[in-house]
Specification:
Helices cover 24% and strands 23% of the residues. The chain contains 9 helices and 23 strands.
Length: 445
């Protein structure tokens, strides 16, 4: 029986306190540093023919370190050092940070009602943004995840922080992989043996995970798959890889979720929670990009969409927070289905990058990403201005400069005034905010 592990780099002894869980690859233990008593988690891999390759892969990941990322809300549970055991010299394992499973929960815990309530829609956008950010930082480091699935992400449903676990399967992009993933999340070319796991196949897997996050169901499980008696390997190969049909395919209803009692919640979430632009992203990936990796949406596309959705989150009179994507007219509350009035918006022309639109409502924040989409980092969410109720005119709004710079404020009749830091001026149609090289125009929706 194993009682402790030895750190390959530090030589430290880690005492096993108790088992935390086990799976197909091995057992995860709660361990403590014998000297400092600091708690960690340790994964001990089961003996297998590929044990030596596991050792090499863990050693590579330990010495490369986790991807560089400047968002403190993204946590990679990365291998800290390889472990050995005197009691089991043929085995291998690694040390990793401990996850706070009270704070961070799985998607299944939320969708099955076994955990906390689902995140508010802006928080769901933040989780989605961070998921795409985490994978993009991994790819930028020359790595690929290979095994994206709903069991490898945990979320804080209140703060929107995320944890990415099971990083021992991460590989150098295009290197031979120890695992291919699970059928439900594998890109078709991987499932059919036409390619090895790589960053391109990750794009498909992350789209499936985002769909799970929003819909709580799989995008290829509809009317046709409900008739199956068994989800055996041939069935998964057919419906997830050979002949997958998106349940909301606009022209092919063979596997539709619409009108199926068992999928009523799935359909309701699609119709009520997914803005048209989000639906278009899923349609593009699960129709055009399903067998053509080059047509899959980039992670930067997902990041920009979720940033913009999170910023446009008006509250209905019933108290429900909604999302506006710049296209929905009229905007109906997902909860009570009442029309939410859309009066003004702030529009910024970004040249070749298109434009960004921020809805005008009390509490709406103009952020740096509304003015610059060339790069995404923590600074992209920096608040530059906030919209507030007009102190003298009920129903009207003012915009308050929260930056350190003085802006130009051009009135609707062409007069150019200054908008100094912490100063506020009225938001009315025809007004322009001159923020550095950008012009933010106020117009009616």
């Amino acid at each position: 029986m194993i009682e402790h592990f030895l750190g390959a780099d530090t030589g430290k002894r880690y005492r096993i306190e108790r088992e935390l869980g086990r799976g197909g690859e091995g057992v995860v233990y709660l361990v403590t540093d014998a000297d400092s008593k600091t708690p960690f988690a340790a994964k001990w891999c089961k003996p297998s023919p590929r044990l030596e390759r596991q050792r090499q892969q863990i050693d590579t990941l330990v010495h490369r370190g986790p991807p560089l990322i400047d968002d403190p809300g993204i946590h990679f549970i990365w291998p800290l050092e390889a472990l050995s055991s005197i009691d089991s010299p043929e085995g291998t394992g690694y040390l990793m940070p401990l996850i706070d499973t009270q704070r961070f929960v799985t998607i299944n815990q939320i969708s099955n009602g076994r955990g906390p309530a689902q995140p508010a829609l802006p928080v769901l956008c933040r989780v989605s943004y961070r998921l795409a950010t985490a994978l993009e930082s991994l790819h930028a480091a020359g790595l690929a995840y290979c095994d994206i699935n709903q069991g490898n992400i945990r979320i804080d449903p209140k703060q929107g922080e995320i944890v990415i676990s099971d990083n021992d399967n991460v590989i150098v992009n295009h290197a031979p992989a120890q695992v291919r993933g699970v059928w439900e999340f594998m890109a078709p070319e991987i499932a059919l043996g036409q390619a090895i796991p790589n960053a391109e196949s990750d794009l498909y897997s992350v789209a499936i995970l985002l769909y799970y996050l929003w819909m709580w169901e799989h995008p290829m499980e509809g009317k046709e798959t409900l008739q199956l008696y068994s989800w055996d390997i041939p069935a998964k190969k057919k419906y997830f890889a050979q002949e997958p049909v998106f349940v909301f395919h606009p022209t092919n209803p063979v596997n539709s979720a619409v009108g199926i009692p068992e999928l009523a919640l799935h359909v309701a979430r699609w119709r009520r929670l997914c803005a048209p632009r989000l639906k278009a992203m899923f349609n593009h990936t699960f129709i055009d990009g399903i067998h053509q990796p080059a047509k899959r949406k980039r992670l930067s596309d997902w990041r920009r969409l979720f940033l913009e959705l999170e910023a446009n989150a008006p509250t209905c009179a019933c108290g429900a927070v909604n999302l506006w994507d710049g296209e929905s007219k009229p905007l109906k509350c997902w909860r009570c289905e009442r029309v939410i009035p859309l009066r003004l918006c702030l529009e910024t022309d970004l040249g070749h990058s298109g434009q960004t639109i921020l809805l005008a409502y009390p509490g709406a924040i103009l952020r740096r990403h509304h003015l610059d989409t060339a790069s995404f980092n923590v600074a992209s969410t920096e608040p530059l201005a906030i919209q507030e109720p007009h102190p003298k005119e009920p129903g009207q709004l003012i915009v308050r400069n929260r930056s350190a710079a003085t802006w130009g404020y051009r009135t609707s009749n062409g007069q150019l005034l200054e908008l100094e830091p912490d100063q506020a001026r009225a938001l009315i149609p025809g007004v322009e905010l001159h923020v550095g090289p950008r012009v933010v125009r106020v117009r009616q929706v």
